[in-house]
Design a protein that fits this description.
By secondary structure, the chain is of the alpha+beta class. 17% of the residues lie in helices and 27% in strands. It has a three-stranded antiparallel beta sheet with strand order 3-5-4, with helices on one face. A two-stranded antiparallel ribbon has the order 1-2. The longest helix has 10 residues.
Amino acid sequence: VSTQSTGSGVFENGFKYFILPNSFPPNRVELCLYVRTGSLSEREEEQGLAHFLEHCVFLGTEKYARSEEVREILASWGMSFGPDANAETDFAYTAYRFHVPVELSLIH
């Protein structure tokens, strides 16, 4: 697996991105969002907050207010929580990963 970037850049808000080749699994794109803060950034009285916020991301959005709606949308794209949409909080970072089908006809 190659880790050489095929593209990268920085958005106006400072968000850095990198595009890497991905041949496995076929017909899928892996999106990773690494937030450079984790449990070591918490004060004593905040322990567990980073992990709690990680879970809140999957509870819904303004457009999809219920977590069931988020699950239904993912299912309509051939995705499910766990293998295709997941996150983890480490000491130094929080990471969100999505394995998205490439077939654009699946995405409404």
